[in-house]
Design goal:
Number of helices: 2
Mean pLDDT: 89
Low-confidence stretches: 1-9, 146-151
Helix content: under 10%
Strand content: 35-45%
Length: about 150
């Protein structure tokens, strides 16, 4: 971490991240969820492959600089945050507002995060297989869902 980054990072920040050109820089001051891999068509089109994202409570995300942050309403249910200068995909914000997803690749290392599950595997590309042994859900996992995920 550079001296400039360390002076801008708040005490207690659990993660620091940025886009490729540093036009968007952020910190998270709270817990991050384990990585969820999303294979939905929208994530694949937006990122060029499947997405790997963590998440936090919206009030735990602090934008250090956001001059080039842009939001795209990719569906009725969510917006995607990206850098308008370099194009880096950074955030996914659902309309319900209970969390904000952060693309794992935008975080500075080490993250200390582990992987949890794959979602929307029914929409995954036909050019790869999922072989890591993590749970696989055809769509969104449902808390009351009686069926187990695919493995």
């Amino acid at each position: 971490m550079s001296d400039a980054q360390s002076t801008e990072q708040s005490r207690g920040a659990s993660a620091l991240g940025r886009c490729l050109c540093t036009g968007v820089r952020f910190e998270v001051c709270g817990p991050l969820r384990p990585i969820v891999y999303c294979h939905c068509t929208l994530c694949r089109r937006a990122s060029g492959h499947f997405a790997a994202a963590t998440a936090c409570a919206p009030e735990k995300l602090r934008l250090i600089s956001a001059e080039s942050l842009r939001w795209y309403p990719s569906s009725e249910g969510a917006q995607r945050g990206f850098c308008g200068t370099c194009g880096s995909q950074l955030f996914w914000k659902p309309a319900h507002g209970r969390h904000i997803s952060i693309w794992a690749g935008a975080l500075d290392s080490p993250t200390g995060l582990g992987s949890a599950t794959h979602i929307f595997v029914a929409d995954k590309g036909d050019y790869y297989e999922i072989t890591d042994g993590l749970p696989q859900w055809p769509q969104w996992p449902q808390p009351t869902q009686s069926s187990s995920p695919r493995r």
